[in-house]
Amino acid sequence: MLRRKRRRLIPTANSTEKSAATDETFDTLDEHTVDDGGVMDDTLAAIHLLLGRYHSGFAAMKLPSLVFWHQLYHIVSNRTAVDQSIYRMRNEGLIMTLRITLQGPPATAILLTKDYIAYMLQYSEQHRATRIFAKGLPSLTSTPTVSKAAIVDAIQQLFHSKKRPPLPATVLDEDIRHLVQAGFLVTTTALDAQEEYSFGLPRLGLFITSVVKARAAITALLNRAQYKEMLEVDMKKRKLTCSRLPMDFHLLDMEGVDLIRRLVSGSTCVVRLGDA
Length: 276
Fold this sequence. Notes:
Arc Repressor Mutant, subunit A; STK19-like; Serine/threonine-protein kinase 19
């Protein structure tokens, strides 16, 4: 168990504005803050470790820090414990998961809900739709997709809890359209009649492109090496021109999906292609 200080969102100049359509005040940081408790389990500690380690790379892409679910398996050895912790933290609204479309097995990215909210409010310049959505978001993160009905219900519950009249359906439809256009909600291709969305991020395509190109570059590098393997220390000296993230992030990604293997012998670590 690790203990750490909680982070708070940074207020903006417009954080005390009122919504013209609803006369609802969204002016307190605490209402957008998700409490992750004073003590972290190993999985949450690993998430914080990786988010902090690669923060500068994501900041260069103007994105909040992310970590792949499969990367955690090589930080915390007990996969069952990792999965159980992620499900629990997602149900509690501490973390969110984003579906990432990549070649091969589907990938899932993880980020802190409060980081997502902070990014959303900053990116949208405190737009009314995102301020309202941010307040209801922690109750919607238990799955990577959310129905329109669930979004509407979460928002109306907020107004009911404050004894405010419910939002008109036309206003809610407009708010959801804004979130889709901004890239925070992505319409799914589900065949059923129910409108459903997955969570997204503007500029997420930059990250996906970086991962795809880095996987290809590292695979080519190892294919050119003798026995299709290299010392990890030598690989980490290489700079990937296709990504703002360091070599270590991409090695951890590829190891998590069995594209490479790390073979440790004493103080030496060799990186080898997964099929070598």
